[in-house]
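Repro:
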Amino acid sequence: MADQIVGTERPRVATPHRLVVPREEPAGESPAVRGETVFDLRDVNVFYGAFKAVRDVSFEVAEHEITALIGPSGCGKSTLLRSLNRMNDLIPGARVEGTVAYHGENIYDAEIDPVEVRRRIGMVFQKPNPFPKSIFDNVAFGPRLNGVRGSTLDDVVEQALRNAALWDEVKAKLKQSGLSLSGGQQQRLCIARAIAVEPEVVLMDEPCSALDPIATARIEDLMQQIKDKYTIVIVTHNMQQAARISDRTAFFSTEVNPESDTRTGLLVEFDETSQIFSNPNDERTENYVTGRFG
């Protein structure tokens, strides 16, 4: 891979992606992706110490698509999401087994730089978390760390706010605190902050759960607008949201250990969203999306 995620000086050059050729697959297996593969997960298991939180997850994420992870609480959706940019590295005792390949490169290989992984694969969290800084400084934080200064920084901040559909609302008050914005505006500010460093992928962990319906609709519209620039993976408890915005959906469930009462998440089904919600292959998926359990 010509542009490996290693070292400290890495020019932004095109990565030689591995093309995936559409193929016929037996029912119940992952569908062929429509574009180039960004993530290829194979037999992924996530542990916290001796506890296996997620087991045997395999699916692919295609570029410029929205992939939704759905399932009941405790099924490992957020744990898996954080594994896609090595955020779990920050949790003592956490480890990932199997392969999380990003453009064919396993991001858990020893020589891979996790900081560079997180620059290329951004994250938006459940609750808006602006820094206690100005609107401008919130968005400029990452680019400044990357050495961007002066008028170029101004341009980067403006473009990120435009891409987050927030520029027109804040352009006259860039020096005001980001904490002064409404909840929905704060979440769009966090999206602007995430995309200001020009990632390829944006991970979103229930980004609308703390927002009202109007703000939620704005975030959903925004995701549709920016997916031509970014690949998006979103965790959501809102099945209607997954059905509205995503191209592919992964449904997770849990296995309960009767002795310890611990729950391990597992992938039940991954397919095009229309298939998951209209004609799923697994009865557990149908029971969940129709509200019969979960």
